[in-house]
Specification:
The protein is 74% helix and 0% strand. By secondary structure, it is mainly α. The two termini are 24 Å apart.
Length: 324
């Protein structure tokens, strides 16, 4: 293709991405009972408390995605050195792509197109390592919290509870063992015949040593602490009677269940809210408040960043290096 054709095609792709993103966002926000319930509940609370909590949620949202940008920069440092600002741009751009793609797969495209063309596949592989690190912690915390939940709220005998706890430990250990030996993936994929031509990309898995993987886990842990704090603040504002420990452990279960379900960011908010309402029903009868809290975090952590990320979609150059 000549430069003129590439330019026209690039503009068409950007317009399509932005059009899909804004259509989905508008469609969901205009028919979202959770957000409506959230506004209604806030009107019944002390304005000063609401202002403090909401301001904190927004600040934590930016901190959350800034840490993700630092993690992304760290993940690709051996592939291509990028500035912190470019890492921020790529993360927010990825969120714009993510909202209308299944399991947020578009987030990969939104990020890797900020890398040089010959580094993009390797960047996607590196991003997989970061995503897996986040998943490992969600599974570890979630499975252990689930064993606590079954022990506390389900009428199971002692042997069954003990067996579930041991199973949760084994499950957690498996994920940690696999993560800290992520180079195994390189060996496994290299043995698959039709994937052998791509062996040079899988070698990226072998470049992450234990110290680097620990670094990635620390970024992931920090992010979990941040969005758990967000949930804690908003749920405590709406339902102050829930015990803090119960709230945190149920949140870990919520993340765990959520991570195992196929999703579309804009279409699964109802499923997220229903899942949270079920588990929180064991400690509170304020179902509407729980669902409203989940909807508010969804709006602040995903939808608003996706809107902000639309600005960075315009900077993408699909057929060459992105502009700095």
């Amino acid at each position: 293709m000549n430069s003129s054709t590439k330019k026209i095609l690039s503009i068409c792709i950007k317009v399509t991405i932005l059009g899909l993103a804004f259509w989905y966002i508008y469609n969901r926000l205009s028919n979202n009972s959770g957000i409506s319930n959230f506004r209604m509940l806030l009107n019944e609370l002390d304005p000063e408390s609401v202002w403090i909590v909401m301001s904190s949620l927004f600040l934590l949202m930016f901190l959350n995605w800034f840490l993700e940008a630092l993690k992304w920069k760290y993940l690709v440092q051996k592939i291509e050195v990028i500035s912190t600002w470019k890492a921020v741009e790529s993360v927010f751009c990825g969120l714009t792509w993510a909202v209308f793609t299944p399991n947020r797969i578009g987030e990969y495209g939104g990020r890797v197109f900020f890398l040089s063309p010959n580094k993009r596949i390797k960047g996607a592989v590196a991003m997989t390592v970061g995503s897996f690190g986040q998943l490992v912690l969600v599974n570890v915390f979630g499975s252990l919290a689930l064993s606590w939940f079954l022990f506390r709220f389900m009428d199971l005998n002692l042997l069954m509870n003990f067996s579930i706890f041991i199973l949760a430990l084994a499950f957690s250990g498996f994920f940690l063992l696999f993560f800290f030996n992520i180079h195994w993936i390189n060996g496994l994929l290299s043995k698959i015949k039709f994937l052998k031509p791509y062996k040079r990309f899988f070698i990226i898995f072998s470049k992450f040593k234990v110290s680097a993987l620990l670094h990635i886990l620390m970024y992931s842990l920090s992010r979990i602490l941040i969005f758990s704090t967000q949930y804690f603040l908003i749920i405590h504002l709406l339902i102050p009677e829930i015990a803090p420990l119960d709230m945190v452990l149920i949140l870990f279960i919520f993340y765990f269940i959520q991570s195992s379900m196929p999703s579309l960011d804009l279409l699964d908010i109802g499923l997220r809210a229903t899942t949270a309402a079920y588990f929180f029903s064991f400690v509170t009868d304020q179902e509407i408040a729980v669902m409203a809290a989940v909807a508010s975090i969804w709006l602040i952590n995903l939808i608003i960043p996706a809107i902000l990320g639309s600005v960075f979609v315009l900077k993408l150059n699909f057929f060459g290096s992105p502009r700095n």
